[in-house]
Amino acid sequence: MDYKPLKTGNLTAKVPVIQGGMGIGISLGNLAGTVAKVGGIGIISAAQIGFKEADFDQNPEKANLRTIQKEYEKARKIAPDGVIGFNIMVAMRHYEKYVEAAIQAGADLIISGAGLPMDLPKIAGASQVKLAPIVSSEKSVRVIFRYWEKKYKRQPDLVVIEGPLAGGHLGFSVEELEMYEEECGNLCHGSVNSGSENRGKKKYEDEVRKILETVKIYEEKCDHEIPVVLAGGIDDASKVKEAFALGVDGVQVATRFVTTKECDADIRYKQAYLDAKKEDIVIVKSPVGMPGRAILNTFQKKVRAGEKIPHSPCHGCLHKCNPAEIPYCITDALIHAAKGEVEDALLFCGANAYKATKIETVEEVIQDLFKA
Ligand SMILES: Cc1cc2nc3c(=O)[nH]c(=O)nc-3n(C[C@H](O)[C@H](O)[C@H](O)COP(=O)(O)O)c2cc1C
């Protein structure tokens, strides 16, 4: 199968793949730059991006803003002509400032989820940066398109659909995750592993088709193409093929890139993926109640047993977090992950992470995903 490049406005990625943003510290300049160099779209995660800076504990916001620039420059040096963007979560405190810093650094694209990026066009202003919301349902795509059109007279430049097999925080309730079970088609292969009984099956493909129909309506209205990219559990050439057969213009892949040589995570984090078995991948609740997917390690077992994990002074990451009430600090747990302290860490991963058997290069992963 021949794949067309992924295009939005003046941006063209020769290979229609976006490397999904992975925080904290998993997709930084090295991974994003390498993906962009090979022809895909490289995405740096802005989530607590300054965690290695000496002043991070005292002033996380300042450290993050400075590091946005640094990691962008690193990526740009690797891929002078590549497409490089940032993943910036709506749920982050100082979201606006991080978006502004990414634009100032020179980002081609901002991808924003973990909430609906309702006012992203206002923050981007007259800048040429491309804007892409992440959605998991037709309802959310409709809400965003309507609101952006009414308030800002513009459309998203690209839409990322994130399905139930993705890694990190998920845009579904635990009940919804239970609905999307094994037999919902190739794109839903692998169990959602929510730990409870399968209470019914629903095809996520149906939701993808509905989202595509809604985007089409707006495409016709505005008379230009709005590419749609599908994410979640896409980890081999057959799933890439199946995604395109549904009518999307590209795929977003994250988990496969963790076990690459160029991924910015510590080697022990990558090894945790290589060691994981299918039953080790579980649905977890983040401290602020959102479901996510991660490896069941010592840390996660403690959390499940109701243990309260002591944490460092608040780093001010999420809007909704109350440090006095949380079972653990998500920033602490994800920084442990990035640093390779894997038994004390929240090890986010996609549903198919257990399939990784070796460390590869980014180029090998991309060739494998798009092989005939
Ligand atoms: C380790 C890890 C961290 C992630 N962190 C984020 C994040 O900070 N923000 C976000 O929007 N998505 C995050 N994601 C989701 C990915 O960007 C991507 O959309 C999704 O995982 C794709 O599914 P796949 O991992 O099965 O390929 C993360 C995924 C993983 C595996």
From TrEMBL:
Q: Which domain of life is it from?
A: Bacteria
Q: Which UniProt keywords apply?
A: Flavoprotein, FMN, Monooxygenase, Oxidoreductase
Matches recorded under InterPro entries: Aldolase_TIM (IPR013785), NMO (IPR004136)
What the entry lists under CDD domains is as follows:
NPD_like
Q: What Gene Ontology molecular function terms does this protein carry?
A: monooxygenase activity
Tell me, what does this protein do in biology? Nitronate monooxygenase that uses molecular oxygen to catalyze the oxidative denitrification of alkyl nitronates. Acts on propionate 3-nitronate (P3N), the presumed physiological substrate. Probably functions in the detoxification of P3N, a metabolic poison produced by plants and fungi as a defense mechanism.
What is the protein's given name? Probable nitronate monooxygenase
